[in-house]
Amino acid sequence: MRIILYILQKEFIQVFRDKTMLPIIFVIPIFQLLILSYTATFEIKNVNLAVVDHDKSVMSSKIISKFSGSAFFNFKGNATTYDEAVLSLKRSEIDQILVIEQNFEKNLRSGQSPHIQIATNAINGSAASLMSAYASSIIADFNREIIVDENPTANVGLPINAQPTFWYNPELNYITYMVPGILVLLVTVIGMFLSGMNLVKEKEMGTIEQINVTPIKKYQFITGKLVPFWIIANVDLAIGLLIAYFVFSIPVVGSLPLLFGVSSVYLVAVLSLGLLVSTMTNTMQQSMFISWFLLVIFIMMSGLFTPVESMPQWAQNINYINPVAYFIKINRMIMLKGSGFADFHKEFYMLLVYAVSVLSFAIMRYRKRV
Amino acid sequence: MSVSVHINSIEKKFEKVEALKKLSLNIEEGELFGFIGPDGSGKTTLFRLITSLLIPDGGNIKVGELDSETDFREIRKITGYMPGRFSLYHDLSVEENLNFYASIFNTTLKKNYHLIKDVYEQIEPFKKRKAGALSGGMKQKLALSCALIHKPELLILDEPTTGVDAVSRKEFWELLKKMQKTGITILVSTPYMDEASLCDRVALMQKGSLLALDSPENIVKKYDGDLWQLSSSNMHTIIADLSEVGSGIKNIFRFGEKVHITSNGLNLEEVKSVITEELKSKGHNNIIVEAAKPQIEDCFLDLMEEN
Fold this sequence. Notes:
heterodimer; A: alpha/beta; abc type-2 transporter like fold; 6% strand; B: alpha/beta; Rossmann fold; Alpha-Beta Plaits; 2 domains; 6-stranded mixed β-sheet; 4-stranded antiparallel β-sheet; globular
């Protein structure tokens, strides 16, 4: 035990003496959280819209003003021809074209259905369907208004009236959804890279040779390498939670000790994975690339940006060995829903098994030989 | 306290390279034993085998009664190892490095200060300096201090004087001699042949085998070739010019300010006439040829040439 303390002391001296690493450890996560939370959003705002109005009537200008009045659309002006508008679409100056046919008002008045064309840039499919849905709902709204205007006594209510209510995130605020996930992301990146680089650095500097001829036991050395970064990553998580509370007004609905309990187990898993990588590599470059590769896969598959449930079955199966996915799920549950241990005990036990097995494997894999 | 080291037909291969070929030798308790040999002769591999960092492909090594493969934990407690490459923490100070290594051997700098006093005194004024900022000689003294802090019975130093200036080298060897008097077995490797004469016994290694194993005096005594020493007005080109002499001249190598040559069955007069004639034709003046007393380097170069 005393020996572990001496190794810890040495590691902390080294971490806090490194004037380049220190800001990386504490400042970069804060920036990540502040920046990513705002940018990683799938809400569609600022759709650039061009209108080709062939009718130029009172009705057509009414419908255009509906669009330009909406918060979603940026009205980018009129195009005289459809081709001209398509050219702008090609240049990515606009995202959507609204075409109003000639005789729009006349047809409307005479009871024939007039046509409106909506063309959307669908390179990003999900964004395109959202844009198109917004546009359609504006037009549907407009339709109803016309009917009411023309025939005030008509019943325009739909037969079934659905009343949606939104739980846990009533304002459907995307940041609320993202912040718990990004918190997980940043402690993962910090934990995995720090632990992955540290052991391999001793190999590169040659210091491991001197350590290996001492009677230090494997578990003592690995523990000494793990605990400092475990503490640092938990401190990073605490800083992140404070930012979530004070900057994004996202309190932790559930139990804080429970959250740190889970994160402590989770970090053992991630740090051990980093250590495992560094026991198998010989240079920081190799370690960096393998850690980065694992992280990208874990993060992309974790459900941080896209729901896991909509991934193909094989991808969902891979997530069984993805610690990031478990912790993002648990963290969202605790932070947003206030879930208790019983609600995610399966995920927690998976993390526990993960942590114990990767740690033992890392200790086994570390050899006190050349 | 000191231990003996017994190496029994040890073999080690790295892929296809045979680093050590059935090497056997015994090192007595309290001996200052030198391994001399060019780079790649297997010195570092042998040391790594003794410290149990490597596992042999054949044979075994005993440190006292301990086997390097099975009792490596015990061996590590009584061994001080200084790797060829500076392996202490660059970002820790001199003092922090020492304290760290003392503590992982369950001791303290204070308690064992007397063991390293001679070495440590010389770097103590810089104890707050980071190890990475020390000069080569000081780094070696720090590494030696760290290797000694736990009162080892066996001290293994892998090329401790490589890359160290001549004055520091001399100091370092004086320290080793002092160390030896405290009754510790010391194994030291070096590529510098002149350091061989400072050891009790030396092993000359080449390509994983022993060429010679004896005390430096005996190695010199066994030298049986004819050795001549010569100088001229133009020492810059002398080796190139001599290489064309041919007949009867075996080896030519620089030795300090002179050049040493060995010959086969020629007496001084014959050598003189052959050399003088050749060198004169190449524009050399003041040519002096005389018989030389063999030094340990001459013996090693001769042995290495034979193999």
